[in-house]
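Reopening closed ticket. The problem is back. First fold of the pair:
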Amino acid sequence: MNGCGIAALQGLEPANLENHFRVCALVPESAAVAGPIGGVMHELLERLHQDHKNLDRVLTLLSSQLDHFFAGRESNFDLKIELLEYLETYADLAHHPLEDLIYHAGMKRLSDENTHLLERLLGQHQRLTASTRKFRMSLENILHDGVMSRAELETQGREYVALQRLHLNLEEAEAFPLLDKALTEEDWKEIAAHQPRHDDPVFEKPDQLRFSSLFHYLEKAEEEEEAED
């Protein structure tokens, strides 16, 4: 086994994650959301998978904006803040809570080894929530002429994107297939009865006033993709 598999990531510190991805090419843009091998998952997992595809688009756009900023090119701070507000508004308040319900149900059905994976993902949800808020506040601080070095902001941004991609990859490659096999129809009914009622404000019920810059860039990206086809 080489040092580029998912297992090799388990003990890495955040500061080493993005370099690991770059060397191993483990999680290139959009690779973390390829979907299940061998068929369709339960509808709630399919919904989460679609969320992951949307989150991947957001992370790709955020990463591109960070590349522009750190290279000294024109960069849209309003867009970067909107991207993080979206992650706070939907990922942290609806997407992750639904996953938490599913993981807690799965912990009653799976082996100790697989339960450890779910516990790890639950812990990552808490850390990602804190990291999203911290990075948004750092960007707002820079926007309002606060004192923070470019190197410090770059480290924070690169680690944040790397952690998000690692998290998506672990869920898609390991957790979702296990849960789809382990959970019963009764489990899914219980989860559905308690799932958060929170619409996606960008990809489901668009709030074009709050996320105007994000909508502009997503539409632009779609037009460029259609032109290439």
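Second fold of the pair, where the issue appears:
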Amino acid sequence: MSDMLIHAVSRVSTSGSRVAHGLAEQVPAGFPWYAGEVSDPSKCLSCGLRRTQSGVGLIEVMVAVLVLSIGFLGVAALQVVSLSTNNSAMARSMAVIASYSIQDAMRADIANARAGSYNTGTTPIKANACPAAGTTLATWQLNQWCAELGNRLGAAASTTGAIKCSNTGDCTVTITFDDSRSGVGGSNAQQVVTEGML
């Protein structure tokens, strides 16, 4: 008797409905396992139910790699700008040091400096064509200063130094060099002007 009852509950009619205790329950479309065709719903690939996604998809990985790549490019660009700016600051510092150097040299030979022996006139000294050392202290100091400019700022025609001293000892030292590699704000004729009293 119990076997017949269980058979009646699980029996499926040919019209697609389940008969249980005299009540008809309509079988939903797209769910063959519900009608007893598939015993394990988790193994049903054609069912309407969607299983929950697990793990990381390829799209998520590609997006993450793209974001990281953009970040690395930004860091690299920032590093390049930082290096060029530091080089520009160092070159300007070297120009200031060179201007102080020639002023100290002129203080040691103040009489000739006031007399105009160190003045370069309208033609500044070029680091790629330094004047001869000569036989006087003034010409030797100018030769050494020109070599210093070439070593610190580059021995090129764009690196120049000009000196103008009055008979009272007021001196203006103008150093010009190429600072175009510093990027924004740089110039191929950057000038550092120093004024001082001997």
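Update: turned out to be a display glitch only; the data is intact. The beta strands are 17-20, 23-26, 125-126, 160-165, 170-177, 190-197. Residues 2-43 form one domain. Please close again.
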